[in-house]
Amino acid sequence: MADLVNKIVFSWFMLVTIFVTMHMMDGVESGFLPRAEIAISNKIPKLDLVFHCKDKSRDDGFHSLAPDQRYKFGFSIDVFLNHTLWFCSFQWFNEFHYFDIFSQKRDNCRTNCEWIIHRKGPCRLVSENLTDLCYPWNDQTPPLPLKPFNSLGMN
């Protein structure tokens, strides 16, 4: 019986060690974790698109795309907590916007997430039904309605 308990404890210890090690390797790309591949295309006529993408611990840097140019990058996806999030800022001429370019909870694309950047917002190409999923910029979503409080903090 003691051997069985020791094997169970050892197995749990190994699983926890693997889990912690994989999270510590956040910036390290490994061959056995699933990856997301992101492509960004500039569809803003006659204007260069400057963008900067990153997550909480990794930074892909600043990039510039002329109209109709495309840029690709990839990263490992968190298989344990399902919370991978990459966000980008986009700017051209006198406009600045930001958007979550990959949200593991929202996006079901894994091997190829193709984004087209328009003035009104980003659109993800969906090949299954040959349509685009278009989103507003994060900074253009309406704020939650707020009611003023009286001096006692009550509505």
Write a brief structural summary.
With 155 residues, the protein is mainly β. It is built from one helix and nine strands, in the order αβββββββββ.
Written account of the structure:
- It is found in: Secreted.
- Keywords: Membrane, Secreted, Self-incompatibility, Signal, Transmembrane, Transmembrane helix.
- InterPro entries: Self-incomp_S1.
- The protein is mainly beta.
- The protein has a domain at 33-140: Sandwich (Immunoglobulin-like), CATH 2.60.40.10.
- The chain is built from one helix and nine strands.
- It has one helix at 2-24, and strands at 35-42, 49-54, 59-65, 70-76, 85-92, 95-103, 113-117, 122-126, 131-134.
- Strand 2 (49-54) and strand 3 form a beta hairpin.
- It is elongated, with a radius of gyration of 21 Å.
Averaged pLDDT, please? 81
Number of helices: 1
CATH superfamily of the domain at 33-140: Immunoglobulins
Largest sheet: 5 strands, mixed
Cα separation of the termini: 63 Å
* Number of beta strands: 9
The CATH topology of the domain at 33-140 corresponds to Immunoglobulin-like
What is the CATH level 1 assignment of the domain at 33-140?
Answer: Mainly Beta
The computed structural class is mainly beta
Sequence stretches where pLDDT stays below 50 over 5 or more residues: 23-27, 146-151
Second-tier CATH architecture of the domain at 33-140: Sandwich
Helix content: 10-25%
| Gross morphology | elongated
InterPro entries: Self-incomp_S1
Main location: secreted
Keywords: Membrane, Secreted, Self-incompatibility, Signal, Transmembrane, Transmembrane helix
Subcellular location: Secreted
